[in-house]
Each structure stands twice: as C-alpha cells, then as structure tokens.
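Model it.
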Amino acid sequence: MIGSIIGDIVGSACEHGGIKSKQFELFKDECHFTDDTVMTIAVAEAIWKGGEPEDFISSIKKFGRAFPDLRYGANFRKWLFSNDSAPYNSYGNGSAMRVSPLAHLFGLESVEKYAKISAEVTHNHPKEIKGAQAVAAATFIVRWWEDYDYRSIEEKKAEMKDYIERAYGYNISQTLDEIRSGYKVDITCQGTVPQAMIAFLESTDFEDAIRKAISLGGDSGTLAAITGGIAEAAYGVSDELQEKAMSYLPDELKYAVEIWHYPL
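Modeled.
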C-alpha cells in the first residue's frame, strides 16, 4: 500500500504536466496526497472489515467524505455524497489505482475475486473491473509472500507478464520508449494499466519504477500509484521513502496506514 501512496504523492506535482523525463525532484513542496491515496486506504479498511460489497461502499464513502476537497471525478463525487450506493458504470481508472492492499490476500483467485468486488461497487464497467483485477493480480504475482519463494525479480516479472497478457489481454510487450512520445493523459484503465505495468517491468528498483511511470507524461499520479504498488511488492520500499511520504499525510491517514499496511 505504501508504494501506491508514494507514487501518488510524487506524481501529484507532475499531474498533467507533460513531463517526459526521469530527471525530476522526487519530493517537492507542491507534492500532496490525492484521491488515489485516500481510496487505497479505504480499500485496505474494507478488506480488513470483511471485503463484502457493503464494506467497500462504507469505507470508500467514509474516507471520501472525510476529504471532500480532493479532485474526484464528477460522477464519483456525485455517488460519494449521495445516499444512493448503486454503481454508475464508471469508465475511469479509479478502480485500478486503489487495489494494492488486496495483494496481501492468500491465493490469486481470492485476490482477483475481491478486486472485482472492490471495483464494481463504483466502476462496474467490464473494462474497469478488468483493470482492477489485472493490477491486483500483477501485484500479487511479484510479491515475496512465502519464505520459500526463491524466484528472482526477473523470473517474477516474466511470470507476471505472461499471466497478464494471457488472462487479461493487455499488451505489455511494448517499451516505454515506443509509448512515450505519443502518450497523453488517459484516465481509462486500458490507457493506464498496461503502461504502468510496463514501467514496472523496465525498472531496476522501486524509485526507478516511479520515475519511469511519471516519465510517460500522462495521468502521472495514477500511473505512479499503480506502478508503485506493484514495485513495492517486488522490491520493497526504503524506510527513508516511507517516512518522507508519511510526512505529507494528515494524522488520520497516517494512523490508517499504520493499522492496515503490512510490510511486504
């Protein structure tokens, strides 16, 4: 979870800025947490409470309403502050940016099951459910979750790539250099998820993954949040980066992270 939060905070200063380089200051004064962080924490609470649809609805509304001034999408904001809990067929990538906590579940089938539930309470369009499941699955596959898991990083990347392309049909065989020049802000899962995964596949460590995701110049906070969650699962995150990111959070969110974040 902390990897997604770091990606969100670092990417916030470059949001829609069209940056096409890895060379930038990681944490700036203008960095801030966004709805990506808040919704990731909400998903963590919801799965801790039981992972039923009503758990996701109540946690998402609870945390979203506690931070009403963030840049939520118009349809999501309407849902968030209404008494109606029916999903609204969202076509945005919000379903995928919030699922990293689900990688702590046991078994790929469970991860994908709860990713689907977490998405469809709001983003019930098939492409956005697919995006959430794919990100959660990728994060789970590369995670060191057993003492006897002796796979190398490259072996885990190969396994993830093969599974995501077979199970979800995303093309993650392109390179960032092939994508970057023509890439623009795209808030759909199909325009965000594969690109974020490629940034991870080309990375050498956690920070490099974040920098590569942001270097695409698109929806940088969400790209880096998705990449950051996967990269944390594979590489871990230094105490220094974790502490720096936590300094941007208000006490309520810090407390939530401390409760629901399990070190990878």
